[in-house]
Structures are given as C-alpha cells and as structure tokens.
C-alpha cells in the first residue's frame, strides 16, 4: 500500500502563487533594510547546542530542536540512569537555530577582526521551535532580522522604529508599536522588593495579553509575596498619556537608580520618535516584558490593528549577548519581522498587490518546429528587457494552450503562425478582454515594459 504523503505539524508547503506573495514580502523588507545601509549575512541552520542552550530561558530551551549525533550516539551513555534533559545534551551536540539573534552574536565574536563597528546587519532565514502549532504559530518559520551592534546610542532604536514604520506602510498594514525598557522593569522589581526575581516576574508579565491579569497574578504568587503583587498592580494597570505615565514612574521609581536610567532612556527615545513623525502610533506599555533573558534596555512589540494575531515584529536592546562568547561590552539592538505572520495578516486583509502573483507576462503559442525557431530569438530579446515570457513546450491544441495561460494568470498570448512569419508581425491576444491586434516585436516590448 502506498504511503500517504504528509509533512510535520507546524510546517507548510507553499505553492507558486503563495511563494510569489512571500517573495514580495522578502523583497520589500530587504529593500528597506538596504535603504538604511544594513548589510546581509547568513548563518547555518544548525548551531552547536552549547551556543543555543541557556540563552532563551528555561521555557525557550525546551523548544529547541536537537539533532542526534551521527553514528552510535548511545555509545558510552547510560541512558536509563539519566533524566531526559541531561540525556539530550549527551547524545546531541547540535540543534536547529531558535532565532537569528544568538547565532548573530556568535558570528560577531567569531568574525570580530573582519568587521567594522558599529556593524549593521540584516538576515532573512528560517528558524525552528518545537512549539505547539496554532494560528500564527509554526514550528518552522522565517524571520527577517535587522540589528546594529557596537553602539549604545538610542538613535539606533529610533532608526529601527523608522524601519518598522516603513515596512508596514509599504504593506498597508495598520500597526501599533508598544515600547518598554527592561531597566524600568528592573526598577519595578527593586521597588516591590524582589530584584532577584526579575526573570520570573517579566516572564509572567509578558503573558498578560494572552492569559489576563488574574492568571498572571496567580503565576506570580508562586514566585513573590502577596504584598509585592499588590504593589505591582498599579503599574500593570497604569493608563494615560506618555507624559502621565512617565511622571507616575518618576515618583514610583525615584529610589531605583536603574529604574530612573530606564525612564531617561525612554524620554530620549520618545523625543526622537516625535522628530521622526512616524505614521504608526508608538505607546509606552509597562506590561511589555518580552520573555527572552538577553534583553537589557529598550524592548519593542508590533501588533496589527485589524487582525487578531500575536506580535508581527519584536525586539530590543541587548548589552552583553556577545559576552557569553567571550567578547565583553558589545551592546546591540535589533528587531525581528515575522514573515509568516505578515503573510497571514496580508492574506486575511487581502493586501497583496496584483503584480505580486504574476509570473509570465506573455505566452507564445507553439505551432511546431519552424515557428518555435522564429519565437526563440524574440523570447531572448524580451528577457533582455526583463520581461517574463515563455513558449508553450508542446504543439497542443490552441484551446489547451489558452487554458494554460488563463490558469497561470498570463495576461497576453502571442500567436506567430505562417501568416505572421510572412508579415513579420505578432498577433497579440489580451486574455482579459479577448481583443486581438497585430504588433511588431518593438511594439510588443514597449507594451510589456
């Protein structure tokens, strides 16, 4: 019995029409990254497990896809006496990358002598997470990352916000960008008396949108005191304008040095935002925590306003991610665009431009050997002018060739038979209107260019 074809849950095939739309996303983002002078790099799909483990927090580590060592991977390992988490590290030396930021930090350290700092890079590649698949969440998905490393200036954060604005303006997706600062969060944990629980508190706060305040408080109760949770409530529920929130924070965090530094950074960044006159709204959101452990300063999350979807872009400042690999005091900041979620949003809102799904602009009908030899040089001329075109490969019935054009959304069909060869012309059929007219090759090029 034949095996039923299938793919792993959380992964997807993309047909040609879908790939054309995805390529439109990648090309638009790439073009904007390059306008801001970011340079492309690529890193391998798999990294040494030691590179990945311990960088994403306990929850992130559980979502790493690990790769079994080749050969006899159980040789010398007492599998029965070991817990599964330890066993995995003994029989797996490599893992699929979880994001593009940690591999980027490893890249920077490994190639530091070849790079000029500040170093601005972009990277568009797939990542893998052993997550539970659901709407907008996949096990294999593309990230489009843009980072600058080797500078602490908040102008970098401002530039990234400008990139976010340009990307979503191009895609016609209405978004809001939520902004916070991990220093402010660190100050809050100090004031409520649990500075050592920063990671636990931020992981819980980060779930506020998903599980609601009650559940977040429940999760926090296992980590901090009831009194601390009570002190945290006004901050989690804080409303009002940016100025209102900043004034309240200045009073609340006046005894926290790190908290006041975070407030100063936030004020400076919002001054730059007002200068940039971005189309998207930017909001100070004190409940934004971003669960990844390596963030140390500004953090961002972008949400689509017209679709129920998780964040479609996020990122932040990391002061010492390269320190893990031996290069200290190398501050960086970056954001990651989730191409798959952008695709889903654009599909739901019908935002893809018509040209993004076009392949050939014109199909030449195949009447046989002699006619094909006349057509081949014409195809070469059209392609030299960057006009996508094709010749039907078989001498099939005309209707079959017309159906091929319609099924592939090819707007024009060119007919070159005996009469056209004698007249040195092309009969051009508009597949939408059905109209036919005679054209020279030069006229055809002008029409399709």
Textual characterization of the structure:
With 449 residues, this protein is α+β, with helices and mostly antiparallel strands. 42% of the residues lie in helices and 18% in strands. The protein has 17 helices and 16 strands. It has an eight-stranded mixed sheet. Helix 14 links the parallel strand 12 and strand 13 (389-391). It is elongated and about 90 Å long. It starts with 15 loop residues before the first helix and ends with a helix.
Would you summarize the structure shown here?
The protein has 449 residues and is of the alpha+beta class.
Rounded to the nearest angstrom, the distance between the terminal CA atoms is: 52 Å
Beta-strand percent range: 15-25%
Computed structural class: alpha+beta
Which stretches are low in confidence, meaning pLDDT under 50 for 5 or more residues running?
A: none
- Figure out the total of helices: 17
- The backbone outline, from C-alpha atoms, is elongated
Properties at a glance:
elongated; 449 residues; 16 strands; 8-stranded mixed beta sheet; alpha+beta; 5-stranded mixed beta sheet
How is this fold's topology laid out?
Blueprint: H1 16-35, E1 39-40, E2 46-48, H2 49-52, H3 57-62, E3 66-68, H4 84-91, E4 92-96, H5 101-110, E5 119-128, E6 140-149, H6 155-171, E7 175-181, H7 182-191, H8 198-205, H9 208-221, H10 226-236, H11 242-252, H12 257-276, E8 282-284, E9 298-304, E10 313-318, E11 332-338, H13 339-348, E12 362-364, H14 369-384, E13 389-391, H15 398-407, E14 412-415, H16 418-423, E15 426-430, E16 436-439, H17 441-448
Parallel strand pairs: 1-5, 7-8, 12-13, 12-14
Antiparallel strand pairs: 2-4, 3-4, 5-6, 6-11, 7-9, 9-10, 10-11, 14-15, 15-16
Helix pairs in contact: 1-6, 1-13, 6-12, 7-12, 8-9
